[in-house]
Write a structure and sequence with these properties.
Protein name: HTH CENPB-type domain-containing protein
GO molecular function: DNA binding
Keywords: DNA-binding
InterPro entries: HTH_CenpB_DNA-bd_dom (IPR006600)
Strand content: 5-15%
Structural class: mainly alpha
Number of domains: 3
Strand order of the largest sheet: 1-5-4
Distance between the termini: 81 Å
Length: about 280
């Protein structure tokens, strides 16, 4: 943006020089016609002829820093960049606040400070710095105290100009596991028993908590299998023909797995457990 403004200003200065030459010959010069011939903005050319300076040379009352303070800020940014530790955008803000505090002479008032968005406006107003995305190699070189800071903004320099980068998240690719390490979840009681036997016979020392977890998994699997088998036998018994013509609603409704134990006689339960144990 700054370079475009300077290029336009150079054309306007040439137009002003042409205007002054024609003014010496003629009493009246058509400024609009001259602006069209030179390809510049008519209002800006008129202001320059009237004596108003461009924004790069006139004083800016709203600017926080004066030219000397800007030079000190540039020097500090360049010095950090030359050491391989470029400043972040907020570090530039802190540096500007420190410069303003150093030059503040009134003890009755607080020193002025720049806003949080000032560094970004500062970068837009100058062509001394440009933006680029951060590379992974840049992250490894950014240190914050005794550790690497991977999520900070930075302002760095290159041979072609000063560079600032915005916050980016570095992603690392995790290699996919080999095919032999794919784990298949056991779904049957027999596969659960085989998996637990394989884990215990691997030779690795198991912690007490993990051993309790394995025993709990096996116990829950056996209880679930027994309840499923009992429910299947009960449903098969209800499908058998009965000599009674009338059945109550309680006799024909579906029994839940949790109610199986209450609907099975202790003797039938013992027989079912014995048959199940013999199958396993």
């Amino acid at each position: 943006m700054e370079s475009t403004y300077k290029a336009e200003e150079e054309l306007i200065q040439k137009a002003v020089h042409t205007y002054n030459e024609e003014k010496c010959v003629e009493k009246r010069v058509n400024i609009a016609k001259l602006a069209r011939e030179q390809g510049v903005s008519y209002p800006r050319l008129r202001r320059r002829i009237a004596g108003r300076a461009c924004k790069t040379t006139r004083e800016h009352p709203n600017r926080r820093l004066d030219p000397a303070q800007y030079s000190a800020l540039y020097e500090q940014i360049d010095r950090f960049d030359d050491t391989g530790a470029p400043l972040s955008a907020q570090d530039v803000r802190k540096a500007a606040d420190a410069i303003l505090e150093r030059d503040h002479t009134d003890p009755t008032t607080a020193p002025p400070k720049v806003s949080r968005n000032w560094p970004y406006r500062f970068l837009q107003q100058t062509d001394r710095y440009i933006k680029r995305p951060r590379r992974v190699t840049d992250v490894d070189r950014i240190y914050d105290g005794d550790h690497i800071n991977e999520n900070s903004d930075e302002i760095s320099a290159s041979h072609t100009g000063r560079i600032t980068t915005t916050t980016t998240t570095t992603s690392y690719k995790t290699p996919s596991p080999p095919p032999e390490s794919t784990i298949k979840t056991p779904t049957t009681l027999r596969s659960i028993r085989q998996e637990i036997t394989r884990i215990r016979s691997s030779g690795k020392e198991l912690s007490p908590g993990f051993d309790r977890l394995l025993r709990g998994i096996l116990s829950n699997a056996e209880k679930g299998a027994m309840a499923s088998a009992a429910l299947d036998e009960l449903l098969q018994a209800k499908k058998r023909p009965s000599h009674s013509k009338s059945r109550s609603k309680r006799q024909i409704k579906l029994i839940r797995v949790g109610d199986v134990r209450r609907h099975i006689n202790p003797k039938d339960k013992a027989d079912i457990e014995a048959r199940w144990r013999s199958k396993g």
